[in-house]
Amino acid sequence: MKKRALGFWEIWNMSFGFLGIQFGFALQGGFMSRIFQTLGAEKDAIPLLWIAAPLTGLLVQPIIGYMSDRTWSPKWGRRRPYFLVGAVLSSIALFFMPHSPALWMAAGFLWILDASINVSMEPFRALVADKLPESQRSYGFVVQTLIIGIGTWIASNLPWMVSQLGVSNSADLGVVPMSVKVAFAIGAFVFMASILYTVFTTTEYPPEDMEEFEREKAERNKFIPNILNNIGNMPLTMKKLGVIQFFSWFAFFTMWSLANPALTEHVYKAPAPIENSYDMTVVAQAAKFNVENTNFQEASNSVGSAMGIYGLSSMAFALLLTLYTSKKNINRKYVHLFSLIVGGLGFLGMYYATPDTLLYCFILVGVAWGSILSMPYAMLSSSVDPKKMGVIMGIFNMFIVIPQIIAALGGINYVSSLLGEEAINAMTVAGISLMIAGLCNLLITDKNAIKYQPELTEIHD
């Protein structure tokens, strides 16, 4: 099927739901470790508490991708039913997450939240490839990244914003501050609203051959052998991209899980107070805890706001790529190589950062993030069978979640311990990992993946 070139606003509408998805991810990535620490988690235990996130991605995304390839409704299309289901479950989990009274409950809500986000996210990746001609693939993924950047910046600043409006940033021992609870409630609303916007403003192409589609649909229950078959026969370019993804996502999982303890301790000099170090029945100790806990919560707000900068810079980077790729070709391989090395330098710079200079480190990290969310998918979509786009995107997610599982099971703690006991060493490990990922782009040799040569097309608004 020859697909028409879409205008900017059509691509914007079909990608707008990612604003909500990124609200969920940014609140999770920026403040989940803070919630864990508030509920009494030791910093060395935090990566393991995060293991729910990659495990659910490993299981959910290939299945959802496979199922969405074999779904069609004249009213709701192929991918949109999954957007809706994921949005409802994610919004519920986001709202209740910060109200968790115990550590195990917060970890359970993280499991539900990440599984639900994955139900929505994978079909969004496939939708770009479904709707756009190959000449607009880079453009489409970059617009998606632009929206992700907006969502990351706003969501990462939400606790700080609501605290500026007078919402309390202090709380009793083991209780999450009201500023965080309000921020997560706002995130739940935005998640649902943005997904609904995309669902009601976007249409999808029907299957090209309905008879063949119905035959494939009838074999839906054979998804496990079919997924395993696709894993065994994945293209060489996909395997090479997988190496890049491994080191990239090891770095970012390290940031999401350990940036809060690392930066509140090393940059802001306000580590989380250890719960069993205080006798709350003694007035002086209770007062000392309240001071140190408030300092930690305020430092956590500052870390969250600084992390939001990487969303803002990824948005700016994506905007530049959007303007460029709407008219001209880019060399995806070298754009990604350069971007990842720049991000690695940002992580390395955190060791020397002050509260005033930390934002510059996250600006550099944002360049890498903007590229990670667009270039690998653009390269992949140009080298796989369009009929299998959903399941391929789901399988590709394995290269995202496996490094996170390894990191959560002790990989971060082990590698960073080689550099010393300080939590900030985890950010150094993230920097080294991201620079290795950048150099691995030299493995990519497929010309279609590197730089697609489109036919001239007219873009209609």
From TrEMBL:
Reading the lineage from the top rank, the first entry is: Bacteria
Report the transmembrane regions from the record. 12-36, 48-68, 80-97, 103-121, 141-162, 182-200, 241-259, 303-322, 334-351, 357-379, 391-412, 424-444
Protein location: Membrane
Q: Which GO terms describe its molecular function?
A: transmembrane transporter activity
The UniProt record lists the keyword Membrane:
yes
Q: Which Gene Ontology CC terms are recorded?
A: membrane
Q: Main site of residence?
A: membrane
- For this entry, the protein name equals SLC45 family MFS transporter
Please name the SUPFAM superfamilies in this protein's record: MFS general substrate transporter (SSF103473)
Pfam families for the chain: MFS_1 (PF07690)
Keyword flag Transcription: no
* Assigned keywords, A-Z: Membrane, Transmembrane, Transmembrane helix, Transport
The membrane topology term of the UniProt record is: Multi-pass membrane protein
